[in-house]
Known about the structure:
binds S-adenosylmethionine; 32% helix; alpha/beta; three-stranded antiparallel beta sheet; Rossmann fold
Amino acid sequence: MPAQDQNDLISRIESWPDFPIEEAHKLNRNRWSDINSPNAQKFSHREPEEDIINFFDNFGSVIQAPLLDLGCAGGHNLEVAYKRGIFPLYGVDISSAFVSDALARVPSAEVRAGDMKNLPYEDNYFRTIVARGVFHLTTANGLLVVLGEANRVMTSSGILYVMVRHLPDEDEKPRVRKFDEGNKFTYLVYENPLSENPNQNPIMVRNYVQNQENLREILLYSGFKILEMGNAKQNPERNRKGIYTVCEKIF
Ligand SMILES: C[S@@+](CC[C@H](N)C(=O)[O-])C[C@H]1O[C@@H](n2cnc3c(N)ncnc32)[C@H](O)[C@@H]1O
């Protein structure tokens, strides 16, 4: 990808009117922190999905500790790493409600509450970061911020696994709208269909990068070379659209 094209996408993202990142993460934290909410219930005791198993199976020779699971929820991905003998393991999640579930699953892991835009770790520490289903839980500008933060806490040549949802799901479309027509990536999520109640406040904020090419450009700009990228295989019943990628930190 020519440098000019990369900068075009990044400067467009930076110039789009955007929802404030702080406010977006506050909404998302509230959504995930209520342990009785459907979001928290779904992720507190879950089995790992096929794409993350494939990552550990196919990249076993380059996955090294210390490993951080960013947005670790109930610790199901940490458990996959634990069973492969990777140590030490760390987990961080914006919702403190998940910490005890993750620790129950992997007692030797160091799990804490924290926000991916301001990670509670030193520079150049992790040799592997797993960020599955979490980088789309911010705004378009926030995506650049959280990738910069992941880059900061990784060693050079560290491995980053990302899985993001890149388009709104069909069943979600009635409850989702773009923050601003000029902003191609930031979306607001509502509790009820907008046709029923157009004046609701949003309950979550997301970014949808639309396609693999955009994600590739954003990752390159953020200092990551793509080793592999594809459509994430997920439980077909859930019919979610996701892109996975395995990258290496190059600067
Ligand atoms: C869709 S779940 C994915 C959970 C798990 N990584 C997986 O692969 O199934 C998203 C997780 O990210 C967490 N999360 C959301 N926003 C976050 C943020 N700003 N910083 C850290 N974690 C966040 C949520 O609390 C939730 O546990």
